[in-house]
Amino acid sequence: MMLSDDKVSHLSHIIVTGLKSKKLVKLIAEEPAIRKAVKNVITTHLSVWQDVDEVVRKKVKSLKKGLTEGTQEWDIMYRKFFEEESARRGGIVS
What we know:
mainly alpha; 3 helices
């Protein structure tokens, strides 16, 4: 599931505003540059997640059991393959 550019921008704004208001970090760059960096991180993470999701769905579909998406067994196999594929990519997706 990809988010629209507007939604990602909105999320980056919320994150930066939250960090700033809670004084969790000291911002040493201009806020627009920080929002852009946060937006890039979100976009990259979502892209990797989507790639992993595609690989995992193909693996589950290729099982000889013929699992139906939405069933408990399908969900279990999806999670198992997702964790494996995520670990294979350095554990950056969860």
